[in-house]
Design a protein that fits this description.
2 domains, alpha/beta, 12 helices, 326 residues, 4-stranded mixed sheet, 4-stranded parallel sheet, elongated
Length: 326
């Protein structure tokens, strides 16, 4: 069911091992490069170097109001805020042409941090050591511009990707985004949207039953809506739904839904086994891959055509082992 075409996602350049950090070093992330890199094409971005700062250089920090901080050098307090904002506004326009399906930012970076970036009090440099602890409410200047420009695009930080659930959610979203973009590349046909929605029903349900119902209504009344508006509304609902984290309870509901398709096909022993495994997952005794594997087994054994088409059962390459840990 997987497409072999690589997914294009943006990434902070230092995470690929490029020596662009202030000290001339890098922060190569082995998982991003060696594991996920098999399935994606990266578009590296280093805002500080691309806007004209050298390597090595004086480190930067955010100071002032966390909602609208200034970007200054650590010791000399040279202000690069306007320069960075001007660069960021231009760069995100350029990135529109890349058809990105997501972006991975560098944690804690004053230019590229997605959240919880240190913001120091805006005081005289001589008094900085006595200014107290920094706030952790900042967002990197470039990252803020990017997320405002692409508000629904999947984004994460390399640090947060160490959390199995956040990692699985992000990767699932970029694969959905790729499939959505591929559909948009084709001339609009209502049947293509219906097919896309049908194949993603259970996956959407695992995130938000509210959005699942709303999207169903959109598609059901799609012929009454101008195609451009319909696709925009559907895309907003889709990406908003997928930002909502799937939970054990939501997955359990979907698994029970899957089991319902086999109520007249499974033997009594098979029914009991499936229910026991779903309950073990619900009790957090086994990871999601266990009930998913037996579900796929029954789909294949009994030729359940509707479930064969469901991306929920195979949302991303099994080699990534994402559902082994959630």
């Amino acid at each position: 069911m997987q497409n072999t075409k690589k997914i294009r996602i943006g990434v902070s350049s230092c995470l690929l091992g490029n020596p662009v950090r202030f000290d001339g070093g890098h922060k190569k992330d082995q998982w991003l490069v060696n594991i996920l890199g098999e399935y994606v094409d990266y578009v590296p971005v280093c805002p500080e170097v691309e806007m004209g700062l050298p390597v090595p250089r004086e480190a930067l920090r955010l100071v002032g109001d966390p909602e609208n901080p200034r970007l200054v050098t650590n010791k000399t307090y040279i202000d690069h805020t306007k320069q960075m904002k001007k660069f960021a506004a231009r760069r995100v326009k350029e990135l529109e042409k890349e058809n990105l399906c997501g972006f991975v930012f560098k944690r804690a970076s004053p230019s590229s941090g997605m959240e919880r970036v240190k913001v120091y009090k805006d005081v005289d440099p001589k008094e900085a050591k006595n200014a107290g602890a920094p706030s952790l409410k900042g967002i990197g200047v470039f990252a803020r511009t990017f997320m405002e420009h692409f508000p629904l695009l999947p984004v994460e930080e390399e640090g947060r990707l160490g959390d199995p659930r956040l990692r699985e959610n992000f990767i699932e979203r970029i694969f959905v985004m790729q499939r959505w973009r591929e559909m948009l590349d084709q001339p609009f046909l209502m049947r293509n949207l219906i097919r896309f929605h049908t194949r993603h029903k259970l996956l959407i349900m695992s995130h938000s039953i509210v959005h699942y119902r709303a999207m169903g209504k959109l598609v059901a009344h799609g012929k009454q809506t101008v195609p451009h508006d319909l696709l925009q509304q559907y895309q907003t609902e889709l990406l908003t739904a997928l930002k909502i984290k799937a939970t054990i309870n939501k997955h359990t509901n979907v698994l029970q839904h899957i089991a319902g398709y086999f109520k007249k096909k499974l033997t009594p022993d098979e029914k009991q086994e499936f229910q026991e495994i779903i309950e073990r997952y619900h009790s957090n005794l086994v990871p999601l891959i266990v009930p998913i594997t037996i579900g796929n087994h029954y789909v294949r054994k009994y030729g359940e055509e509707y479930l064969q088409s469901q991306w929920y059962l195979n949302p991303h390459p099994i080699e990534l082992k994402l559902r082994n840990h959630v």
